[in-house]
Amino acid sequence: MRSRRDDLIETALKLFYTGGFNATGIDKILAESGVAKMTLYKHFGSKDELILAVLKRRDEQFRGWLSGEMAKAGPSPKAQLLQMFDALEIWFSGKAFPGLGFSGCAFINAAGEFSDPAHPAHQIAAEHKEMLVRQFAELCAEAGAADPASLAEEIALLKEGAIATAHVRNKPEAAKIAKAMAERLLADLD
């Protein structure tokens, strides 16, 4: 059974993701979660603390999902990297996270709303992206890349570009386009 804290986080995640962090008020979160204001402030001292908890939950949720999707490609690191783009296509179609759909990347959205790099929400967003790049670099190294760090950055740029294109231009096929580019980058591996 989910706790009241989890109810708040899950409700806030959905509302922040679809409506924005700053545009979504505490009253809306309380109304949709059915949680009392006193309970909210028992678990979170402020809206900012709730935002940070939401971003941490989304990080765990998203990275867990993406790693699971990539693992479906089997043991080949190259295949796993390419599988990531197939996973993005599922996400862009709104099928990856029931009840959330696709409203871009919560971390890109957070960094945009909290543009000061010193803001804790911006820092969580940056760390999320860094963890993904490190994961890609490990796979690039396992696949035998001469410069795994640089190749991982290139793969990450393709991923981020696909996310932005799918969201801003409503072009979910961006995942396929990015995958074709990644195939060229990875052609000499494995």
Q: How much helix is in the residues?
A: over 70%
Low confidence ranges: none
User: What quaternary form is this?
Assistant: single chain
| Number of helical elements | 9
Radius of gyration: 18 Å
Instruction: Tell how many strands the DSSP assignment holds.
Output: 0
Largest sheet: none
Q: What is the global morphology?
A: elongated
Strand content: under 5%
Order of helices and strands: HHHHHHHHH
Please, could you describe this protein's structure?
This protein has 190 residues and is an all-alpha fold. It has helices spanning 4-19, 26-33, 37-43, 47-71, 77-92, 106-113, 120-142, 148-168, 174-186. α6 (106-113) packs antiparallel against α7 (120-142). It is elongated. It starts with a helix and ends with a helix.
Comma- or semicolon-separated keywords:
190 residues, mainly alpha, 9 helices, 0% strand, elongated
Q: Can you summarize this structure?
A:
The chain is an all-alpha fold and 190 residues long.
Which helices and strands appear, and what pairs or packs with what?
Layout: H1 4-19, H2 26-33, H3 37-43, H4 47-71, H5 77-92, H6 106-113, H7 120-142, H8 148-168, H9 174-186
